[in-house]
Amino acid sequence: MVNSHYKDVIKYFSKKAAKYDLVDEQLYWRLSDKLLEKIIQVKLIEPFLKKKELKVLDAGAGTGRWSLILYNFLKKSFKLHFDLVDITKEMLTEAERKIRKKGLTNTMEIHLGNIEDLSDYPNDYYNIAISFYNVLSFSENPERALKEVFRKLKKGGLYASIVANKYHSYFFSILNNRVNELADIKSGKTRYTSEMPFIHCFTPNEIRKLYQKNGFKKVEVIGFPNFVYPNIEDARIEGQSRQSKNLLENKKNFQKILATEFRECFNQDVVGRGNVLLIIGKK
Question: Molecular function terms in GO for this entry (predicted)?
Answer without folding.
Answer: arsenite methyltransferase activity
